[in-house]
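User: Please fill in residues for this 320-position structure.
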């Protein structure tokens, strides 16, 4: 069976930065509380009129350039997002049009913060089955648009951004996506949600979260899926070169790294500068670590995420 590989990564962050200190001027919070509880120092916020598809296209163009591909080479586009431009059509179709791609197919995936891992798993399977040759998997969010900026328990946590990867069939060899693992448990759908939606009322709704419960689930579920991934590949945690986790909270990331016995120098951390960008956080972190030379050919890289749904998942990748 053909294996798929990540051929290039790209990232885009909006120019405007909102610091903890600025937030503390608007709501009852402090820079110290936010940093201690989450590790977040700042977040990027999309400009007025800048849509999720705009962020997605900017990241996709960089990923295509890194992969040495043109938009016309792409025959599959998956956009993982919780903040689509419109209820429909899929943001992926808008991205397809903006990139000037006439063929292939495009669709969105909704798995909130696990969306990128879900998208990567989907592209991997389409490529392995021969139904696609060159996929763009994009995690893109304008999460700031669905935040209740008066709710201090959520508004300090999120940011905007986009990350993209080009996934294509790997030549024979050991590099590529080794396995992906997806899970969900809908009984937790009321722990992290928006209080609106197309069939629930006439408004999009704002993010609501039972932070403590989500935190507990995240720590447990991520430990489970990481074990499952290592066991499926017969790999010991000591063989991992990099952990690229979903960036929701530095304490959740530390817990997973500790369970894996991984030193913080092997963990790609962006939550301090990006905050939680939901489906965009893993490809943003991946693009940063590949661009600055930390992740290199031959490295064994573990991606993992957990989010609303509840959803969680992982991917093990031999870089190259
Ligand atoms: O990406 C998808 C998954 N999402 C997550 O993984 C998020 C998971 N949850 C978390 O990261 C954490 O639960 C939070 C960062 C959201 C909260 O941290 P916590 O340590 O669980 O705090 P808490 O909710 O127990 O709140 C502790 C106190 C409360 O005050 P009292 O009741 O002890 O008097 C809160 O009202 O902190 C208060 N608080 C704040 N204080 C200052 C809550 N938000 C803030 C704030 N500034 N922004």
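Assistant: Residues filled in for all 320 positions:
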């Amino acid at each position: 069976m053909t294996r798929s590989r990540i051929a290039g990564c790209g990232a885009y962050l909006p120019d405007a930065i909102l610091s903890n200190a600025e937030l503390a001027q608007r709501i009852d919070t402090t820079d110290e509380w936010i940093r201690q509880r989450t590790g977040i120092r700042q977040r990027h916020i999309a400009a007025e009129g800048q849509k999720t598809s705009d962020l997605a296209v900017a990241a996709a163009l960089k990923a295509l350039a890194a992969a040495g591909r043109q938009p016309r080479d792409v025959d599959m586009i998956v956009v993982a997002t919780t903040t689509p431009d419109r209820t429909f059509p899929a943001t992926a179709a808008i991205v397809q049009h903006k990139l000037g791609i006439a063929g292939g197919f495009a669709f969105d995936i909704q798995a909130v913060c696990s969306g990128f891992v879900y998208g990567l798993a989907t592209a991997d399977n389409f490529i392995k089955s021969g139904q696609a040759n060159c996929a763009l998997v994009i995690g893109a969010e304008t999460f700031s648009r669905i935040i209740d900026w008066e709710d201090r328990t959520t508004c300090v946590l999120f940011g905007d951004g986009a990350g993209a990867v080009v996934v294509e069939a790997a030549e024979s060899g050991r590099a590529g996506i080794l396995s992906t693992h997806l899970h969900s448990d809908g009984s937790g759908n009321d722990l992290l949600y928006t209080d609106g939606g197309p069939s629930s009322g006439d408004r999009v709704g704002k993010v609501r979260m039972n932070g403590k419960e989500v935190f507990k689930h995240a720590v447990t579920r991520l430990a489970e899926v990481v074990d499952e991934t290592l066991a499926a590949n017969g790999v010991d945690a000591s063989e991992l070169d990099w952990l690229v986790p979903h960036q929701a909270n530095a304490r959740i990331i530390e817990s997973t790294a500790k369970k894996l016995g991984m030193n913080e120098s092997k963990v790609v951390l962006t939550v301090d500068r990006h905050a939680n960008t939901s489906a965009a956080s893993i490809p943003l972190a991946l693009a940063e670590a590949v661009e600055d030379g930390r992740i290199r050919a031959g490295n064994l890289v573990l991606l993992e995420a957990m989010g609303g749904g509840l959803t969680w998942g992982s991917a093990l990748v031999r870089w190259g």
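For context: The pocket of oxa(dethia)-CoA is lined by residues 29, 33-34, 37-38, 113, 152-153, 156, 211-212, 214-215, 218, 248-249, 252, 276, 306-307 (CB under 6 Å).
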